[in-house]
Amino acid sequence: MFPDRFNNGNPHGEIQGRKKDSFIYATKEDSPYYIKDGHGDIARWDFFGGNFEGIRQKIPYLKDLGVTAIYLNSIFRASSNHRYDTQDFMKIDPMLGTEEDFKNLIKDLHKNRIALILDGVFNHVGADSKYFLSAVTDKTGPYYSWFNFINYPTKYQSWWGVTTLPEVNKNNADYQNFICGPDGVLAKWTRMHLSTAGAWTWQTNSQCRSCGRSASACRMKTAMP
Question: CB of 89 within 8 A of CB of 185?
Answer without folding.
Answer: yes
